[in-house]
Write a structure and sequence with these properties.
With 493 residues, this protein is an all-alpha fold. It is built from 21 helices and 3 strands. It has helices spanning 3-29, 37-56, 58-67, 74-90, 95-118, 121-140, 148-156, 162-184, 200-213, 250-268, 285-299, 303-306, 310-316, 325-332, 349-365, 373-385, 411-430, 433-438, 442-452, 462-470, 477-490; strands spanning 223-225, 231-235, 238-243. The chain has a 3-stranded mixed β-sheet with strand order 1-3-2, with helices on both faces. α11 (285-299) crosses α17 (411-430).
Length: 493
């Protein structure tokens, strides 16, 4: 048997562990009893430890190294290189330390939920401090000489460094912030339906209606309720999403759902031959976010998307019965200062990301402590969005990411929006997207995304795929100019 075939057998076993862990996480965040969280976290730790042992076994590492000396396809070689890098990043971490870290992540997520529900940062603070220290310790076992936070940035978006993100945010800040102030100074009132009371039942009916509109099939997916919206990948034919329902903010569930379907569609359209391989799920986070933001904003907030369906939407949501189509479109694109990142409009959204990125950098370079994090958050929020944060659940506790030690993840959200804008331009150059939406031909959109982006999984990084699909290097121009053009028209500026 070739070394590569031996590797594939090992990958299949690892895939089985990953499936079990993904299922336990999904259950824990959706339907599992909260009192079972501690035991579930312990069992997840054991499974992670067993998987970790397989991954870092000397024979496993040697098998991968031997495979690189065999005749491989480009896909196979990329697969081995990615898997080997992942292993070498953790191979020197003591097994008991790895198990402790995984268990801490699971427990911290449940503590975060409790802290958020009680609006008590003090409950989560010691876990956050421990997570940061454990991340530093885990990363210290790597061979890389990069500072810890630079390595974390690279984990989520290969090749990206803080200097790159600094330049990106500088461009967004210099061009968008003045424009945002111009939009806000127009003082257009928010349409009343945005804060109307809409029952969870009505919202669920609308989500059920939108699923087939987006060609999201419950034969290969599932929709559940959770504290924080997310998507989970189990296999090529099992990609699930969750939704959070707010009865006084019905647009929240709509666009959280569309967003997460973007993620699920990406995972579901990867080449089935990649099933069980690292490359099936190793897309950069910026690329993954590009697909969710493209679907949520560049398609899901357009007139063409809603026009064929609005009459039926009005029949589901009673609060929209007397709301004109023009008012509805203005409302779902309404710009205002917002406390919550996931509720922010697409124009002010990058400011929320910039804030988190700067705080993460400070936490890891030692210039900010977990004790001072809430006050630092609130100060920056006032400076960037001119709002006074009065509660932690609307401030430092609003996101789940830090409870899972996903440091370095946030900046990819803004990067993903910029990637998505470039992909959308390329798609429009291929066919008329507006016409396809008006004709309710979402399959054409999915087919283009599959052909040009989704099928490759993690074969290409963000910069390479942008060049391949768009024929040019990455820049923020399409993103920034597109926003200015859209909202100038919407606000008659």
């Amino acid at each position: 048997m070739s070394a590569y075939e031996t590797y594939r057998q090992l990958r299949t076993k690892i895939a089985a562990y990953n499936l079990a862990l993904a299922t336990l996480h999904w259950d824990g965040a959706t339907v599992a009893p909260k009192k079972g969280a501690s035991y579930r976290a312990q069992m997840m730790g054991i499974l992670s430890g067993e998987m970790f042992s397989i991954m870092i076994d000397e024979q496993t590492i040697q098998t991968m190294k031997d495979a690189l000396n065999e005749e491989l396809t480009d896909v196979q070689r990329k697969e081995i290189k990615q898997s080997l890098k992942n292993v070498l990043d953790v191979v020197n971490v003591p097994k008991d330390k790895y198990i402790e870290f995984v268990s801490l992540q699971s427990e911290a997520e449940h503590i975060w939920e409790e802290a958020k529900s009680k609006n008590e940062y003090s409950l989560f603070k010691p876990y956050l401090a421990k997570l940061i220290e454990m991340v530093k310790e885990i990363v210290s076992y790597r061979e890389s000489t990069l500072p810890v936070y630079e390595q974390l940035l690279d984990d989520f978006e290969e090749g990206m460094r803080s200097v790159d993100y600094d330049a990106f945010f500088d461009e967004v800040r210099s061009k968008l912030v003045p424009f945002i102030q111009k939009v806000l100074s127009s003082n257009r009132p928010a349409p009343a339906f945005l804060s109307a009371t809409v029952s969870e039942d009505e919202q669920k009916k609308l989500i059920d209606y939108l699923a087939p509109v987006l060609d999201y099939s419950l034969e290969t997916g599932a929709i559940a309720k959770s504290v924080h919206p997310f998507s989970s990948h189990f296999s090529a034919y099992d990609n699930r999403v969750t939704v959070r329902y707010l009865t006084n903010q019905m647009t929240s569930s709509i666009f959280a759902f569309i967003h997460e379907v973007g993620h699920a569609t990406y995972n579901g359209q990867v080449n089935p031959e990649f099933e069980g391989m690292t490359i099936a799920q190793s897309m950069t986070y910026g690329l993954h976010e590009s697909q969710s933001r493209l679907l949520e904003n560049l398609i899901g907030k357009t007139r063409a998307f809603w026009q064929p369906h609005y009459t039926h939407v009005q029949s589901i949501i009673s609060a929209l019965k007397d709301v004109s189509f023009d008012e509805f479109i203005f409302g779902i694109n309404y710009v205002e200062q917002s406390f919550i990142r996931v509720e922010a409009d697409e124009l002010t959204y990058p400011l929320h990301i910039m804030l988190r990125y700067e705080l993460e950098k400070a936490l890891f370079d030692g210039s900010l402590s977990v004790d001072d994090l809430p006050s630092a958050w609130n100060e920056k929020f006032k400076a960037y969005l001119n709002l006074d944060v009065t509660s932690d659940d609307h401030g430092v506790l609003q996101d789940v990411h830090w409870s899972g030690a996903a440091f370095g993840y946030f900046p990819t959200y803004a990067l993903g929006s910029a990637y998505g804008a470039m992909f959308f331009e390329a798609m429009n150059a291929s066919f008329n997207v507006e016409e396809a939406l008006l004709n309710q031909d979402f399959k054409q959109i999915k087919a283009w995304l599959k052909e040009n982006i989704h099928q490759y999984g993690g074969l290409y990084n963000g910069k390479d795929l942008i060049q391949r699909v768009c024929g040019e290097s990455f820049s923020a121009s399409a993103y920034v100019n597109g926003l200015i053009e859209k909202y100038s028209k919407l606000y008659s500026l």
